[in-house]
Amino acid sequence: MRFLGSLAIWRRDMLVLRRSILSELVAVVAYPLTIYLAFGIGMKGYIGLVEGVPYSMFIAPGLITMTAVNAAYSESVWSLWFHRRVQFTIESYRVTPVSVSEIVVAKILSGFTHGLVKGVTVALVIFAITPFRFEPVNLLAYMAFLLPGSALFSCAGIICGTIMDKPETIGKVEAVFIMPLIFMSGLFFPLSSYPAPIVPWIKAFPTTALFEGARQALTSGGFPVGSALQVTVTALLTFVAAVLIFRWKMAE
Amino acid sequence: MTTALRTHLLTKNYGQLTALDSFDLEVDQGAIFGLLGPNGAGKTTLIRILTTLMRQSSGEAFIQGLDTRVNGREIRALIGVVSQENSLDRYLTARENLELHARLHGMQANLYRRRIDELLELMGLAGRQKDFPDSFSGGMQRRLVVTRALVHEPRVLFLDEPTTGLDPQARRAVWDYVRSIAGSMTIFLTTHYLEEAEQLCDRIAIMDHGRLIAQGTTQELKERLSGGTVYEIEFDDEIERYAVLLKGMACVLDMSVSGRMIHVGLESWECLSEVVSALHGAPVRRISLRERTLEDVFISLTGAGVRE
After folding, report:
1. Does B85 contact A at CB distance below 8 Å?
2. ipTM exceeds 0.90, yes or no
3. What's the pLDDT tens digit per position in B233-262?
4. Which residues of chain B are within 8 Å of residue A15 when distances are taken between CB atoms?
5. Which of A149, A188, B8, B200 is least surrounded by Cβ atoms within 10 Å, i.e. has the fewest?
6. Residue of B44, B91, B152 to mutate, interface with A, max A Cβ within 10 Å
7. Whole-angstrom Cα distance, residue B142 to residue B154?
8. pTM, rounded to two decimals
9. In this complex, is the C-beta atom of A85 within 8 Å of any C-beta atom belonging to chain B?
């Protein structure tokens, strides 16, 4: 597979992102910031310490990770749907020497970059308004979760944007699958809050491995290898599925 | 003359529906070839197979000698496609749309910049190159789509209903551009506008229900219809009487009455004197020759019923 086509499409997406960066960032910061202010500050007097840390500190890493993966998913799903169903640009890419796989890779890269840029922005805002800090060296371990995590959500976005023809269906999938997967993965409360029989099932979710592992990596510098592998393998499998599904849909 | 495009027994089935049925076609290098057919005739299916967007169920299709089933990437490097939808990127300027297309074709920046400058000038879009397509008129958007298809200097250009939805002025402007690039590449055009095919195409094929039903130059196709000679005779009175008289004449191939006018299709122009003699003393106000149009040919081959 050549990557020139992927690079050209990714450059296009980055040019469009650059043009609308301010409005994009304002929109993307507003949501996690509202959650942070409502739960982290508004509720901290009622919640106290969670696993030994103040509640606002407990949710901060999860909010950064959530922003990144959510942005990766949203960019991939809406971009693919819009280019396929509204603008027909996917069709215009497909009559050039670019392969279907190159288009998928480009869209995954774009989703991933969106996630990274927006995650970093939310992190900077959280650092600016809270005492949440971490050792810079912890970023390395954190990236081992954020990179495959964003790729995983980006691939999931590609799959949804490929098979769903109506925009309202995309919204429903987000409400029924994506948000519950994120919220139930220990982002706002520790897994120990679940009844014991359910915990193994919750831990089986790749999102749990992602959010728990990312929090551990960022706050304590720990690196749970099993969780990192679980996220990476799921991301690879979802990538293969995204390419196959996109190919199948295009061949219809 | 070498062949730019060839299909052999090309067939495409969608479940029980046969969209293309053993379709055979050859288009010469450098020709402007028109494909006509009613809605659902299979034109778009054929173009999608030829442009490698879709695989055939059976049969073969070759572009510049390359098999569509195994040489997709090579074929796509040689073709330009103007699809029915504009498919312009509304978040990129006109020039950025063209640059993206050039990069997708792997062109070097120094080459594509010069080429894009030339094309924008040729298509009259140079002054609007930094504007976004949404601010363009329908005609300008169409010109931009044609420009984009030409950036990489294709050997075969597919135009799928390139002027649908355009006003007559914009349509004629697109025709002028197509004529200006004719000869430098093979052009394969589908259209609903028969006048467009008549104006632009060297050869025309008519298809229906997935099959090729006629092929030739405009003139050859017109001559397929009753010698190609139709006269309109306007009467002042007694039209029924003369309609019966004309219908009984051996040299009259077909006849229809509308108001005070009788349309008669003659075997050849030599029959006219026989008709004039038969009408001696009749209240004839006017006799005029009506050329067969491509539309007459199209309707006679595909029927007058409206297709879903």
Report:
1. yes
2. no
3. 999 888 888 899 888 888 888 888 888 899
4. 92, 96
5. B8
6. B91
7. 18
8. 0.82
9. no
